[in-house]
Amino acid sequence: MSASATTADIAGPPLHKGFVTVEGNRVHYIRQGSGPALVLLHASPCSAKVMGELQAVWGHEFTTFAFDLPGFGLSQAPVEGEITIERLADLIAGAMRAIDIRQAGLYGRHTGASVALELALRHPDLAAMILTDGLPIFSAPYTEERLAQYLPAITPEWHGGHLTWTFFRYREQHMFWPWDAGDIAHRADADLPDIDFLHRGTVELLEAAETYARTYRAAFVHRALPRIADVIVPAFWGNRPGDSQYKTIPLYPEGAPVRTMSRDSSAAMLEELDLLRLHRAVDGVPAHRSAFAAPNLAGEVYDYIDTRHGPVRALGLNLHHSNTPLLFLHDLPGSLDLHLGAIETLAMDHPVLAFDLAGNAESPSAAPGLDLWCDQIVDVLDTLGWTQVEIHAEGTAAALALHFARHHPARMSGMVLNSPPLLTSEERAAFMRHIPDIVPSEDGGYLLRLWHHQRDQQLWFPWFDHSHTARRTSTPNIDPAHLTRRAIALLKQPRNYGPIWRTVLACDLLSELASAAVPVTVTSDPDDIFAPTVRRQETGQLGAAKH
């Protein structure tokens, strides 16, 4: 199996995702499989997504829970105080208890191995056993000066160079150990991962840019080796050729249960499974339940909703309000994360729900499209018990709102389309020809293509016409931090970027508006990409569009 495979593209047992709150910090997990509980903890600087291949295979025998360590993925890092391995272990233990996992096998890689070790020591009642893959052991402590060199800040730059720096920095750690020692003495004895693996790691590092150093450093200052003798649950200390920690095997005390796995990842995965079978957790595992399925929803809910096409990440605000509920559809391609201000404003007077549509951001899909998204909308509304809603669609999501109205008019009281792309057929064809290819490539150039595509959208309309007459007159939002947030959201499923653009641009919105099945209001924000197309339309030119 490919090391780059993710939970989105590996066939396996049913998958669920969720959040719990521990000491005020949101902790994210991916759940897959059935059987005794097994907790998986990832290495730095990654997220639970890197455990997708293990979950798909081990999930046939275990209920696997892969957690994002606080500071990585979608798990929040504690704001105050130092992040230590011990603190991370306590947070994961709290997350296990919040899910009602009473006992589980513990599996961890690198930083995750250190956390699993401390979890077994500090919370032995939760641990049926522990298996590590490359427990971090260092012959000499890292100084603060050395840590600052190894864990530099990732600062957004106007030119987008921080994206490619991050790509090649992540690539480098698979070529040299440590990554910043580029000489033959430190050449890694490892295969270079494929481009999808490198891309995933790049996005995860960018996503954790503000917190990664605090969590990552914990593994370097933690003293693991003196602690292993105190473990009272069954333990196996795994290492494998081609890993930076393989050379540490001679440092383990005599008689320690060290296991050497195969270099080949598929073979090692099965060898590890054999060890995990030896000491299964004895307590049962609770059924998965989304916070959105609660009988009395709180005012704010942030969780996943299961649909017939997989889980979707959702945010609900002011859900107990009695006014007409609003369903917010994010720009396509995009993410709810890119519209939080608008969602919060709408929620001042209405219950509002927004979710990442399949194929976007944190809602995986290999083949998104209008019909699939409509299915998901129905499933989401049914989960909340909303029989009818008003839809607020941003930008290109107008195509989906109108499609949903055509097929499910009874579920809508009306819609608001904010800055829809009101384009002629010739214009739509031109836009389709200028969608950038952001499929990951070995040279990292796709990152700069996306960066300057996003930047040019703010500077010209259309973005591919760089003449002085096409300059936009509104103040461009080209703040590097803002563009980085957008890039991260769009890079989470880069192979869907072009297909989603083509799907929404294929819709003739001018004709759709003329035959809309429910009342429509068209608005625009002067800063939006397609605001110029709305401004050029006078009210009478919208034909039979209803207001």
UniProtKB/TrEMBL annotation:
SUPFAM superfamilies xrefs? alpha/beta-Hydrolases
Q: Where is the AB hydrolase-1 domain?
A: 36-184, 325-424
Q: Which Pfam families match?
A: Abhydrolase_1
Position of the signal peptide: none
Q: What is this protein called?
A: Pimeloyl-ACP methyl ester carboxylesterase
Q: What is the scientific name of the source organism?
A: Devosia lucknowensis
